[in-house]
Amino acid sequence: EGPNELILVATDRAGNETRQVITVNLDTQPPRIDLLGGSTVEWTNQPAFRVEGTLNESGTISLNGVPFQVAPDLTFSVAARLVEGPNELVLVAKDRAGNETRKTVAIHLDTETPRIRWTGLADGDWTNQTNSTITGKLSEPSKLTLNGIPVLVDSQMEFSAPATLVGGVNILTFLATDRAGNEGQYVMRLNLDQQP
Could you tell me the pTM of the whole model? Predict the structure, then answer.
């Protein structure tokens, strides 16, 4: 492994001798592809995506079979166009000795806003309960807040959020943020009436 020195000696019939030294590098190690931060995300809401990273040695590289340039400092940046849903981006790097490395980037494109389906009280409803509970179900795994306070969402994407109401109209603002960063804001107006 590494540089090897080969000495060639040619001798003619008269005994004259010529020597030549050839250095041959043996490289059996495949190149290494290191991806930079933004290239390792699993979810995005941006169809135009950039794969960025570095190689540890000189060579060629392609993305899904299309070659692209590596900078002199062995960094690279290449654009990829994503489709809605799962995407597989395959990087193939080959060094000067022909050793090859593959790295697959699996990324989901999600441009849809998470939705809420109310399973109990709904927008515009009336109640006589000061301490009420708002229940619902999300359309996809998301983080949820009610008036800025985190709400626990279970593995079935269902939630139950306590709400303290005052007499008259109460404005409850739910904000759902999915794994790709899409946000959906939903406003519920509940009317509290405790007068007989």
Answer: 0.74
